[in-house]
Recover the amino acids of this structure.
């Protein structure tokens, strides 16, 4: 960078982490790791202490998401990207319809397109900065999209496609950067799945899904048929939703999990519920997002990337900068001052900032960030 900018210390946020995932981990979560060093870390995940931990996560999420009767919380290793493959193996019977409007919402569709035992998916494509939900498709047995597109800062509605229930189709929604930050009625889905490295302030490598009775029945039927002689579909144990659910009901995972991830997630789920659950968390994220959007709308050199106010995410905020203000230089200057992970999504290729405003981020730190950006731009 041509110039170095020293932001006055009294302007800096107390915590300068604004990542869109991995996101900020609270000090209390790290302290929970230390507290569990002798009772949880380095012990078997099939023994009571770790199973109690998993049980607490499942119970906490049932409360947080106000899970309807009959729905279940399942979890396993591999992250949300693994759940895409699980859905292809265990939930999509023949053909799925997708809403694709960014890097992550398109990746699940790519998995379905690559599965040799599925027909080519029907893709309803939206331009970056907008969303596109799948429409009623005559031969679809699953409808899939992302609640929040992490790459572009777009939030999409979560509601069943009209007519989908009557045709026996299920609804699969990726909540990875939305769960815990955006309001959701999970009864509008059959699988609402996510990883914990966003609003749940933990590390990646784990997937969690809120499953309807219909999804559970679908997985059992698909996997049973896959085991018949001459079947073209193979469901390996790691991608079996029924095996994951069987283990989840015992408060464990099929394979050995990262116990540290479980500890931090359990602490975060309790923290969110103790503060008021989904209502509190989503209001806090909305406040932080509003600070950024309002600042950008007042700015002479910045503006919100997502034009439709109703589609603007309250989890990941994307801000375009004027071409005369190189975002790379702004990001570098912020990093020199301890403010990190504000880069735009690389594949989007815009002169842009991207800011994670998950529940762990203090709204006052978001306000401080806007002042620091102004200071950097003025002094570059």
């Amino acid at each position: 960078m041509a110039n170095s900018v020293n932001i006055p210390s009294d302007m800096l946020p107390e915590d300068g982490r604004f990542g869109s995932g991995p996101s900020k981990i609270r000090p209390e979560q790290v302290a929970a790791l230390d507290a569990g060093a002798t009772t949880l870390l380095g012990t078997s995940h099939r023994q009571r202490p770790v199973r109690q931990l998993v049980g607490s996560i499942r119970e906490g999420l049932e409360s947080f998401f106000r899970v309807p009767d009959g729905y279940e919380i399942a979890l396993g290793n591999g992250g949300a990207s693994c759940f895409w493959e699980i859905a292809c193996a265990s939930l999509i019977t023949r053909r799925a319809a997708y809403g694709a409007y960014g890097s992550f919402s398109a990746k699940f569709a790519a998995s379905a397109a690559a599965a040799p035992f599925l027909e080519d998916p029907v893709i309803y494509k939206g331009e970056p900065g907008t969303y596109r939900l799948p429409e009623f498709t005559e031969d679809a047995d699953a409808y899939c999209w992302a609640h929040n597109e992490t790459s572009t800062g777009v939030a999409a509605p979560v509601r069943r496609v009209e007519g989908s229930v009557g045709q026996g189709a299920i609804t699969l929604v990726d909540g990875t950067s939305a769960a815990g930050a955006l309001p959701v009625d999970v009864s509008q889905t059959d699988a609402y799945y996510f990883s914990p490295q966003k609003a749940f302030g933990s590390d990646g490598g784990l997937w969690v899904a809120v499953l309807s009775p219909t999804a559970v029945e679908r997985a059992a039927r698909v996997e049973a048929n896959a085991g018949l002689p001459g079947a073209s579909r193979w469901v390996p144990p790691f991608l079996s939703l029924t095996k994951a659910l069987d283990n989840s009901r015992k408060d464990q995972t099929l394979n050995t999990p990262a116990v540290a991830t479980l500890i931090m997630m359990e602490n975060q789920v309790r923290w969110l519920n103790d503060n008021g659950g989904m209502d509190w968390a989503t209001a806090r994220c909305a406040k932080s997002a509003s600070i950024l959007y309002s600042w950008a709308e007042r700015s002479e050199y910045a503006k919100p990337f997502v034009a439709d106010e109703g589609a603007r995410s309250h989890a990941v905020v994307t801000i375009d900068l004027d071409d005369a203000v190189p975002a790379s230089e702004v990001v570098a200057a912020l990093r020199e001052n301890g403010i990190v992970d504000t880069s735009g999504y690389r594949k989007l290729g815009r002169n842009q900032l991207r800011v994670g405003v998950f529940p762990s981020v203090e709204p006052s730190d978001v306000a401080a960030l806007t002042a620091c950006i102004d200071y950097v731009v003025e002094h570059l």
Summary: The first helix runs from residue 27 to 35. The chain has ten helices and twelve strands. The first strand starts at residue 72 and ends at 77.
